[in-house]
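quick one: zinc ion bound model?
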Amino acid sequence: MQALERNPFAQRRGQSAHHVAQRRRFCDQTRNRRQHVHWISRKHGCRPISIIRGLNTLSHGLTWIDLRFHGRSQVIAAALAHDRGGAAIIDPGPTSCLATLDLGLQAHGVRWADVRHILLTHVHLDHAGATGTIVRQHPHISVLVHERGARHMAEPSRLIESATRIYGDRMDEYWGEFAAVPAANLTSLRGGEKIAAGGRLFDVAYTPGHASHHVSYFDESSGVAFVGDTAGVCINSGYVLPPTPPPDIDLESWQESVDRILDWSPSTIMLTHFGPVTSVPPHLAALTENLQTTAAIALKLLNAPGSDEQRAAAFAAELRQVLRGHMTEGEVQTYVVAAAYEHLFSGLARYWRKKGAAP
Ligand SMILES: [Zn+2]
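yep, here:
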């Protein structure tokens, strides 16, 4: 009897076999589209009450979407601001996740015609990859990006080239297309602007350190700051990992960016990897501390014998060990997907060599 009650497709009193089959088919179709619909039984069957797992509210009209990067949750999030006057997406993610973004918009009742702006924190593939593809389909959308990133969005060949050096054959499967954005759709930012988008006013701050063209956005009305990768990677309130891929890592300017974010006194910071954080000052203090720690590990390895390949492997092993002290093995793996450890070494190595601190 218990088993029967747990079965959502069990035929209930007053329901025909046809009705049950129809419900099962609809549920299957929905699951196939990877919508996370919760069903409730009503007198005459079941209906979706809401796309619960897709509705991650930060504040009224301010939400985020788990893009389920390659089927894995809690790796990449896109944020959405919307009201009756239109919508804005903050970091739409890569083209390989576009179908999930599309479903996320639908879940929030947002049509692409409502989306007026895409606000980019920076141009890396996991944040901005889908932008050109979206704009080709919806040419009314304006794209805002730091002036140093704008040229890469208009002419992404160098960006694609350097990513291909890292990802090789897996490039397309991993990220999908990175299409150019027409110059007419691009608005360059420097930091210090106020942007009206998605029914609210965002302050823009220049926040380099992870990338030399990184900006963050703050919505004062809700107290939420969208900080891209400037506040690190943090999954399930775990270890705050500083993402340090090449080529722009700069510890000093990163610290200034952290201070700039703190100056806003945000009640929430929204991380692309992954999700909202409300204990803002302790989180940023942990980021600073962990940035010093990982940079020191890289520096120690750089001044020890070995090839860079060996050093990167040793760095990854040491970092894995640090993470294992804070989380489960499954979570360690999610961190690997969000920030490949070997690349983190390369970024720090480049930083130390530029400073002349390592051979
Ligand atoms: Zn990222």
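Confidence is low (pLDDT under 50) at residues 1-15, 22-54.
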